[in-house]
Structure formats: structure tokens, C-alpha cells
Amino acid sequence: MKSSRFQLVLGFYIFWIFLFFLTRLALLLMSWSDVTPTTHDIFELFSTGLLFDSGFIAYAMIFPIIYLGLLPQKIWCHRWHGYWVKGVAFSTIYGACFITVAEYFFWEEFSVRFNFISIDYLIYRREVTDNILQSYPVVLIFSGMFFVSLLLYQPLSRVIQRALLSKEEFSRRCIVAVVLLLLPLVGFLSLTQDLRKISENTYVNELASNGPYQFVAAFRNNELDYQQFYALLPEHEADTLIRQELAEPNRRFISQDSFDIRREITHSGAEKRSNIILITVESLSSDFLGYFGNNQQLTPNLDALIEKSFFFDNFYATSGQCSRHCLIGLALLKDIGRCWISSR
Length: 344
Fold this sequence. Notes:
Low-confidence stretches: 320-344
Distance between the termini: 67 Å
Mean pLDDT: 84
Largest sheet: 3 strands, mixed
Number of strands: 7
Helix content: 55-70%
Number of domains: 3
Number of helices: 16
Strand order of the largest sheet: 6-4-7
Shape: elongated
């Protein structure tokens, strides 16, 4: 077969598909008891996964294909350009290994592919990177990724070398590039989020997805499916429960509509007009407060505020993540009316 610089596209397509296949297989084995797949489920999640994997690769290859098609032959064959291509190829392999490792840890914690939570990880970069450094052997992981990348580079190095020695006319390169650039267009017109919903089992749908593809989709959609990630009660039961919690002798609900908890409150005493200050501290667990037994004197001012306040010490955040990491303060001071609530 005549050598072509576009052999790089084919070589890296096979590489990515192989890596995505191994990632999907590993995540399936990790969650086998939750998935309990049938033979049909396995076939469908891997075949659907291949579509989304190919869609991501088609998008990722847009600029490389343009580069391969337009770069003059004289520059393409230059020795220093060969070093550049090999360096970019190795960096791509290393980046692929990084994505695979990130998908593993993300799945381990959330049992989903990349979603809007992963976008939040980029927004709150400092907090997330510090947490990762404290939680994982980062140096060991990155070193291991480097050696794995070296191993994966070896079979691709022959493809790269053949491509660097290829000589193609500009017209032929343009034709091949135009044909290949039709693939992301096909993906844009045909691949939708509905295609990955192949089962009533959420695990199956997530396994059929592609991690990087879902990352971009999460960035575009800018939302998190509440129905998927939170346990829900029937609406009537939830409405009844919240009304029972809020029922008091001096309160009367003014509407019977579901979740309309507006109330008319009567009080026999004089009206109080207090000023309220809300104190919100990111990543400050109640474990750091002397009030809850910490002896390091880390929060003397907050501890002093507690003694002068109307303090709630049994307040819980609705999110499992925030309840471990955040402290939201609300207390009423008798003199100036400041308030805060502690999340334990």
C-alpha cells in the first residue's frame, strides 16, 4: 500500500478505539453487580459506545486533518518537523492515558462518565487540585502513565515513521482531507444524547457513553440531571411531609397547591426586626471548631460568636458532598441579630 501522511489518522483512530474499549470494559467490570448485563446489553453498550467513541475522535481530528492536508511537502519531510510530530504523538498518547485514569477515578466516585461535576472541577481548580494531591499518590500515578505511554508509543512509532517518509501531491491530500472532514459533520448531525439512552439501567447508559464526548456535552448543556442523582419521594408524599414539618399553631398555609408552602404567621408578642448576617465558609467542616471538640484553637472568633448566639448545632446540607466539606453559618445574636447555621 502506498504510504500516506493520513496513515497517522488511521493509526490514532485504532489507538483511541482500543483505549476506549479497554476503559469501557474496566468500568463495566467495576460495576458488574450494579449493571447485571445480559448478552444483549453488552452488545448494545459496546456498539453504541463505538459510535460515540468515533464521534469524539472525528471532532478531535479536525485540526490534525487540516494540518496534514495543507502542510507543504518540503516542511513535512524536514528532520525537525519529524521530531515535532513524534513529540506531539507521544503527548497525545500521554493525554489519552491521563483521560483514562481520570475516568477511572471519576467513575469510582460518581459511577458516571464525565458530567457537569467535572466542569465544576475546572472552575474550582485550586480546591480540587489540592484535594487530589492530598488523596492520591499523584507522582506515582503520573510516573506510571509515562511508562505506559512509552509502551503504547512503540507500535505507533512505525506508523509515524512511514507517514513522515510519504510523498503526496497537494491535490490528493486535499481530497482525502475533505472526505475525512465530512465525518465530524456526520457526527454533529446524527449523534445526540438520546442515542445513549439504550436501557432503563443508568449504568448501562453511562457505559455506552464516551467520557471526553460527555465532558464537552456537559460544558455545552451546563446542567446536572437532578432526577438521576438524587433519591426522590412521590410528589404527594413529599408535599405532605414538608407541610407536617412546617405545621405550628401560629402558622396557616394560604394555598393547597403542591409545594406551595407560603404561610400566614401570627404572633402575640411585639414584632422583632433583626439584622441577619449569613456566614458561608467553603471547606470548613465542624470538626475544625472548638465548639465540637477541636483543641487546635483554629476558630476562636466563631467559637466566641457561638456563645453569644442562638445556635443551631444539628443542621445538615442536602448534598452529600457539601455536608462533608462545607460549613454554612446561621446564628441569631441577642444584641445585634446576626445568624448562622453549622453543617456537621
